[in-house]
Amino acid sequence: MKRVAVIVPVAEFEDVNVVLKSAQHLSSLDRGELEMKIIYAVDLAGPDDGRVTLLKQEGMSVFTRKRRGKRAGAVNDTLEYLSDFNPDYIALFDIDSRPEPNFVVICVEALEADHTAYIASSRRYISNHTNLVSQTIQAEYFLLNFLLKKSGFKQFNGLIGVLRADLLAQYKLKEEAIAEDADYATRMYARGYQAILVQGTQLYEQAPVRWRDLLNQRLRWHYGGLQLWRYWHDVKRCGNKKFIRSWLLALTLNYAVIIYLPLSILTPFVLLGYPAERLPAKVLPKPPLRITVGLILHLFLLQYSAIVAIVNYLRGRGVEWTAIKRVAD
Predict the structure, then answer these.
(1) Which of 8, 81, 260, 319 has the fewest CB atoms below 10 angstroms from its CB?
(2) How far apart (Å, rounded) are the C-alpha atoms in residues 269 and 259?
(3) Please, is 214 exposed, middle or buried when counting C-beta atoms within 10 Å of its C-beta (0-12, 13-18, 19+)?
(4) pLDDT band at 67 (very low <50, low <70, confident <90, very high)
């Protein structure tokens, strides 16, 4: 029987109700023939953190720690904590991740069938359609899902998915990397591994609902992308031309997104032509004109984020990890 450890890092600023919703959802995951252990890695907010008691009441395992190395540190520390369990696979989720019940089982099946893969995950959609910001990100996710299918560098944000435990334990997440997910993905592809986009399941998550939260998120992503150039020689040597091409496009075109502004006029026609019956059950149809305005604002925000990230990187300045406002789901 294969063992799967489900790891959910919990930052010290996450609200108790958000944590509770996560535990209630993940408790419904299908296990199939898998031995599964769900563990929350909680960065303690104080000596009497009520979230720990709540998680234990929900039947979850809890690993507590003082924050070190941010999210990457939480995952690395939890891997050491799980050494006695000795998992074959690690399912990694964020506190707002809402995978469908069969998500882990299908991803494990994909990894069992392809030993060249280091991660398996699915298409992702937005669960909080509350305002223009999150509705705009939902439209963006349709493009990202399309690119995931076509790209030679499938980079699942946050490494949300199921990973091979032996590779994760061997290579670890780089705690100094601003975008530890893209950093790990680059290193795995450069070593000849690949990522699998599975069919038959999907995952929902929350988008930022404030423009400033979105700006801070994308500033981290842009800054983290600049750090990936340190792997250029490893990428060149791997010999995977499709990966090299996709990797280079991701690290160049993402910093000049304003060139896509003229294409925004096509947005209403694309949205109107997309049949509502093909949308996932929880995804709401999008008002075309409203989303067009949102995407135009989003392009300017992304371009500003890219410029600020480049300037900060060249000046040797870092970026701060800030909390994102969440909504009840």
Answers:
(1) 260
(2) 20
(3) buried
(4) confident
Cα(233)–Cα(221) distance, rounded to whole angstroms? Answer: 21
**Which residues are paired to 204 by β-bridges?**
98, 125
pLDDT tens-digit map of 143-169:
888 889 999 999 999 999 999 999 999
Q: Are 128 and 209 in contact (CB under 8 A)?
A: yes
How is residue 212 written in tokens?
């400033």
Report percent pLDDT > 70 for the chain.
94
Q: Which residues contact 188 (CB under 8 A, 6 or more apart)?
A: 118, 119, 167, 171, 194, 195
- pTM for the predicted model, two decimal places: 0.93
Average pLDDT, the chain: 92
**Rounded to whole angstroms, how far apart are CA atoms 36 and 139?**
34
H helix runs in the chain, sequence order: 16-26, 50-57, 70-81, 103-113, 132-150, 165-171, 180-190, 211-227, 232-237, 241-250, 267-273, 288-314
